[in-house]
Amino acid sequence: MAALAQMRADLLNPDVRRSHNQPFRCARCGYREICDQSLAQVSAGPGVQDNWDM
């Protein structure tokens, strides 16, 4: 129950820190393009294939 209460409190906080160290989770996150804490690359660059948008 404490975790759920913390998650609800975080909804009102404009500066919630990333809760993991897993690049794959960042790569699939809907906020990755605007996140200043992302562990994922936004773009692999021209000619480089990535699997994030599959």
Major beta sheet summary: none
Describe the global form: elongated
Derived structural class: mainly alpha
Could you spell the SSE succession in H and E letters? HH
Average of the residue pLDDT scores: 79
Could you explain the architecture of this structure?
The model has no long low-confidence stretch (mean pLDDT 79). The protein is elongated and about 35 Å long. Helix content is 28%, strand content 0%. The protein starts with a helix and ends in a 26-residue tail after the last helix. With 54 residues, the chain is mainly α.
Reconstruct the topology from this structure.
Layout (H helix, E strand, L loop, with lengths): L1 H9 L12 H6 L26
Please give a quick description of this structure.
It contains 2 helices and no strands. With about 55 residues, the chain is an all-alpha fold.
Give descriptors for this structure.
54 residues; mainly alpha; 2 helices; 0% strand; elongated
